[in-house]
Amino acid sequence: MKKFEEKTIKTKNIYDGKVIKLQVDDVTLPNGKTSKRELIKHPGAVAIIAITKDNKIVFVEQYRKPLEKSIVEIPAGKLEKGESPEVTAVRELEEETGYTTRNLEFVTSFYTSPGFADEHMYIYKTSQLEQLENPLEGDDDEFVEILELTLDQAKQYVEEQRIHDAKTNYAVLYLEMLGRK
Q: Domain Nudix hydrolase spans what residues (predicted)?
């Protein structure tokens, strides 16, 4: 057994939804005792740091039901089955912002909430945006407003907690660090 590994004894599937699956696993702990783990299975997601020709960052504002408020975020969305992160990035950029790009730069990836979910988030950056003549329609249940902010404005939004999610905070910090080099 690997260091700290927990061996799954039994899995009970609780819910299989459009975005997530919920399961409860019975596990054997490294010390031989047993415990339960409530797990969210997620197909993964992509987010895009999109920079306009006039050096503004493209954001979307949308209502987030779990938070019961709207927040400002970089464009993002979940991976569809069989879709590569790069394809998802371009699709989500087009659907949410009306921009497209032919040049994506991989920045990083990370697990969003490893204590209970397996969601793996990929972050890309592009500064070669092209406005679509015929923007794609977004999801029927998704309502967004596009914002283009300077880095200083985005940092102010972080202070005001209008930007209040990990991926977007990461994007602002990343751009801040790039500016210091």
A: 40-176
